[in-house]
Structures are given as structure tokens and as C-alpha cells.
Amino acid sequence: MTHEPFESRTYEIEVLTPTIIGGQDKIQSFEFVKDGDYLYFINFDRLLEENLFKESFIDELSRGLSTGDRDFNIKDVLARYNIDFKNSSKYKLKLEGVKRLSKEVVPFVKSAGRFYIPGSSLKGAIRSFVTKALNRNFIQLYENDLSSAYQKTLNSADRRNSVDPKHVSKDAEEKIFATPYESPFKHLKISDSDFVSSENAGVYEIKVMNICGGQVKWFAGRSNEDDPDRAVSIIAEGIKPGAKLIGSIKVEKDFVEGNQVVRGIKEKIGVNATATSPTEFLADVLKAVSKDYIQREINFYTKYKQAQIVSEYQKLLNVLNSLDKNQFLIQIGFSTGYLSKTVGIFFNKNHFEKLAKVDRQSKIYPELFPKTRRLVFKNGQVWTVPGWIKVTIK
């Protein structure tokens, strides 16, 4: 009797908080029309094809688009020529309590115009969370990399020879997870999800909270303001809470146990994970990491008196504590922040002092880093944090 070397399963994602997987080019104001509580996104191919013989319209449209005139209003142009923008739109999204619409929208990644969650995004989030579960010896490798980069920066008189901060953890990553050929993650295979309709997506408003002098401020471009109404708004397409997506996942035994070539993650993990099934072992690890991360964020937001976000995280913690052995929570996508994507959750003031010397492009405050959080607003009020999903492996 032969055994499959992996478990081939279906995963189901349930979106718990607005989730944004950012596409490439931002959608500019001339590409959408606001009508009531909806944004209609223009299909220019259809618009031009259906109005090809309206030469003055084509001229005016071309002139407005080519000059980049900030006052160019496509809704007004369409109205002058009695063109119904709704008939020329490729999709519409509801504005989910957006109070201030900016000149551009962060697009959600799409395939043939349809919303989905790439398998690479889910796998990348899993990898980021697994790094937060590493035992102390492996975390030390990241610290060693940072110390090495710090010394190299101090010894370099020429700023052009400074260390690229993006590469600070490269050696540690290779020592822990090896080359792509030898990495345990080659034994974790995740497909793209299925598609969700635009009815399951919306447009969200995000603002940046910044801790200045121990007080909550809101990033407003050149200043940080007490009043969030004066803050910069990031507008983004996202999948709504409650939406469900499915795909396939294969967790090979070698991902956990390793083999002659690959050292599995089991021997690297410093959290309590006792399950014997590969999928359940992975779920155990991710639940432990998420619980620690959520509790740290509850402590952070409690300190700065953000009761709404504390409440949102408490809901997530309640969900996590009720999960079955084949389920886990994870944060994914755009605006989820430094702590979600790095091992920086374990760094202290000394580490950040070194990082501040190495990374000359970012503003790093060793006493408190990161100082900022991106939060989703609704109707002008702090509402929730982006990117939390529940994953069930069936």
C-alpha cells in the first residue's frame, strides 16, 4: 500500500476584516465616476467603441487625458455628450463609509477583471508568520545579520556603499530556509482562490495613525494632526468581511518533517505545536503566532486608548480561541504593516538603533518602532484593521 507524500486539500478563506491585495498601477480619478454611494470604473475600450463617430467628444476626451489636467472631470464630459457612464463601466463598487475620496484608488489584484486572492499572497503571509514562530537560535540569525550590516555601515565612509536594508535578513533567510531548491516551502503548494463578484468587494478609506510624543496623531502629509479629518486618506479596493473564497492547498509531509535535502519546519519551530498531520501542524503554528501577535496589538492599542481597535482585536482573539484544529487566522495584504510581515516583532531598542543606522531611507525611532499603524475608517470614525482572514483546510 502506497501513501501520498502530501495532503491535497481544499482551503476556504473567510474574510474577517476588509482585505486588500494591491494591484500595480493606481486607478486615477479620470478612470472612475462617483454616483451616490458607488464608484463606477470606466471601460475605455467600450466607451470609445460606442462613441467612435462623436469626433468632438473623442477630441475632448483625448485632450483631457493626454494633458493630465487635474481639473479634467470625465463625468462632466460624458454628461455634455449625453453618454451614460453606467453603460460604459466595467464594474461598480460601493463606497464603504468613505468620507473623503482622493484622486486615486489602490486597485485590488484581478484576473480578467475579477477579484481573487493569489496563492502567492497567502503563501507569503504564511511564510512571514512562520518566521515569527522560529526558535530562539534562528531569531538570533536575524539579529546577527543586523549587527553585521550595522558594522558594515559604520565602516563605510561612502554612503553609496551602505547596506540595502531590504537585504539585511537575506543571509539569515538562506541559513534558515536555504535556497528555493532546498527550502521546506517548496513542499507547500497553494493555488489561487476562485473569483468573487464585485458585490463582495467595496472601496475603503485608510488613514495612518502615528504616535508622536506619546500621543495619537494622524498623518497629514507634511504634518501629523490631532483631528483625523485632516489626515491623508488612502482609498483602496478591498474584499468585504463575510466574503468566502476557496482554493486548493497541498502540505507535503516533507514541509514539516524534512528529508535528505530539506530540513522541515518542525525542527525550527519554537512554539508549541503537537499535531501530527502536516496541515494541522501548520494550523497549530499559525494559531500560536497569531495569538501572540494579536495580544501584542491589543496591548499597544490599549496603551494609546484606541478602544474601537482593541474591541476589533478582541473579536479576532475570540474567533481564534474557538477555531478547530484545521483552522487558523492570518493577516494578509496591503496596509498590514511592518510587524505583520517581519520578525521585527522580537526586536528591541538596541536592534532598532542599529536598523536606524542601516536604513537611511526610513524614519526609525528606536524608542518605539513601528510608530505607525494603518487603520480602516468608516463614516469618519476609526473602524477596524485590514487584512485578517480565517482559513479552513478541508
How would you describe this protein?
Residues 12-336 form the CRISPR type III-associated protein domain. The chain has two domains: 6-21 and 115-393, no CATH class; 28-105, no CATH class. The protein contains eleven helices and 18 strands. The chain has 394 residues and is α+β, with helices and mostly antiparallel strands. The longest helix is centred in the last third of the chain and has 26 residues, at 278-303. The protein is 32% helix and 24% strand. The protein is globular and about 70 Å long.
Give structural attributes.
single chain, alpha+beta, 394 residues, globular, antiviral defense, 5-stranded antiparallel β-sheet
Unreliable spans? 1-6
Instruction: Determine the oligomeric state from the structure.
Output: single chain
Instruction: Please outline the major beta sheet.
Output: 9 strands, mixed
Structural class designation: alpha+beta
What percent strand?
A: 15-25%
Distance between the amino and carboxyl termini: 24 Å
Mean pLDDT reading: 88
**Tally of individual helices:** 11
Supply the number of structural domains: 2
Number of strands: 18
Radius of gyration: 24 Å
Elements, N to C (H/E): EEEEHHHEEEEHHHEEEEEEHHHEHHEEE
Looking at the structure, what is the overall shape?
globular
Helix content: 25-40%
Keywords: Antiviral defense, RNA-binding
Protein name: CRISPR system Cms protein Csm5
Family: Belongs to the CRISPR-associated Csm5 family.
Organism: Caldicellulosiruptor acetigenus (strain ATCC 700853 / DSM 12137 / I77R1B)
